[in-house]
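hiii so um. not sure if this is the right channel but i have a protein structure encoded as tokens and i wanna go backwards to a sequence. like what aa goes where. can anyone help
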């Protein structure tokens, strides 16, 4: 489906981003990975994906809190891959604490990574997409782009910001063949959530088992985690011809969380 196209997926060395990168490679796209992690493991994943799917797999270790590093990553995608046809802004971190104790450095990190980095990647990818008359921009947002939870002030603010960014870019790209949408998953069991379970247990003074049962899955009426593969399937669908008129949408995948 995406043969000859390139998908840049930020934060794709782990969790949801890794599943999305895998899915796009299976769909036939060349893929550029980004994110932190063990160099050998990342190299092994590149080789495995390239061999299994018969596509080219690149990697940028850019720290997306650094605008100059983002510029370098986009230059690499431009020169080695003829630019990003599909851009998935997925990299993100979380921190859980009451606002009066919320570390200022964590606020700056979360706004910088979860929100501002998407502004930079989009502003740099947009000219190429407009020139080609086709582009798909997908944000891994969150149910927290639509509703809040206590102790997640920076994350909720960043994800609500992503909702606004998504809608604005959708309007600007509309007549140029560019679509911009956000996927809003509920809880997906990834390393990010593992860390959050521990932090929430500390913040609320309860056990990790109680956090999963009474805090995390309490929010999801299905009482089931969303899987990374389900999010990846939605990203793939958003790049398909059937989704050509989906633009500026916040696609909920949360077992009914925000329906409450
Ligand atoms: P994860 O921790 O498994 O993966 C995060 C990725 O981001 C990793 O590849 C990591 O290396 C990368 N990363 C972290 N800091 C970076 C930086 N400064 N520069 C570049 N890359 C960086 O997390 P995940 O759960 O897969 O989350 C991915 C996205 O999905 C995030 O935006 C998150 O907010 C969102 N999300 C997650 C859930 C969930 O329940 N897991 C739910 C809704 C939305």
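sure thing!! here u go:
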């Amino acid at each position: 489906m995406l043969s000859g196209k390139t998908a840049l997926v930020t934060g794709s060395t782990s969790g949801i981003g890794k599943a999305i990168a895998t899915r796009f490679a299976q769909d036939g796209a060349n893929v550029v990975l980004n994110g932190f992690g063990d160099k050998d493991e990342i190299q092994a994943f590149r080789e495995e994906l390239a061999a299994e799917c018969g596509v080219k797999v690149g990697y940028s270790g850019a720290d997306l809190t650094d605008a100059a590093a983002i510029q370098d990553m986009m230059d690499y995608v431009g020169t080695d891959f003829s630019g990003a046809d599909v851009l998935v802004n997925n990299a993100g971190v979380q921190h859980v604490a009451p606002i009066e104790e919320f570390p200022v450095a964590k606020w700056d990190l979360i706004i910088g990574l979860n929100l501002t980095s998407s502004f930079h990647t989009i502003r740099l990818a947009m000219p190429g997409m407009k020139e080609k008359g086709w582009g798909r921009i997908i944000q891994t947002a969150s149910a927290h782009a639509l509703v809040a939870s206590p102790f997640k002030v920076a994350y909720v603010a960043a994800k609500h910001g992503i909702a606004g960014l998504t809608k604005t870019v959708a309007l600007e790209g509309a007549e140029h063949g560019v679509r911009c949408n956000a996927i809003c998953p509920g809880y997906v069991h990834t390393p990010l959530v593992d860390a959050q379970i521990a932090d929430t247990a500390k913040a609320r003074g309860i056990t990790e088992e109680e956090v999963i049962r009474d805090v995390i899955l309490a929010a999801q009426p299905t009482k089931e985690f969303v899987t990374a593969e389900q999010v990846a399937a939605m990203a793939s669908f958003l790049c398909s011809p059937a989704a050509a008129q989906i633009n500026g949408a916040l696609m909920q995948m949360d077992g009914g969380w925000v329906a409450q």
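oh and The CA atoms of residues 119 and 165 lie 8 Å apart.
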